[in-house]
Amino acid sequence: MRGISFLKQNALVKGVRKHRSGMQSSVIQEGNGPFPGMNDIVSVRYKMKTIEGALLDHSPNNNELTEFRMEEVIEGWKEALIRMSVGSEWRLFLPPHLAYGDEGLAQVQGGQTLICDLELVGLREDSKVTQGRRIRLLKRIKTNKIQGTSDKGRRNSPGLLLDNLDLIE
To answer: Are both 111 and 145 inside the same structural domain?
Structure first.
């Protein structure tokens, strides 16, 4: 109940944006770099606190970055990170369903509304995902060559996709 009350009051604060999911955010600094995709690995600095201000987790120190696969972060971070460009720093206000749910995790009690300061410092492609795309692309090309088909003249070809051309080395 404290979390719900906190979010209602926080929504009235100037500069706080409300998202459909229930997350709230405020931009501390807007970056100008690229935006991460769901298959990227992000480098971040962060602090995670309770609404009472108790520190739950944070980056090791201000000079060290922490890396996460986008697919493995909590839902609230995913929602924020895909909207953040590299160099951005946001404060997130996360209801339990976008954080650790009713179950919690380690030092985070279940049902907690959290405040996260999140800075997106860098990103890179996940090499396992990229390699998998290359293998699938090469299989499609090989299949088309064996069948004697190409993408020219075919509208619904399962072969080479133009948006995957950057995967060919």
So the answer is: no
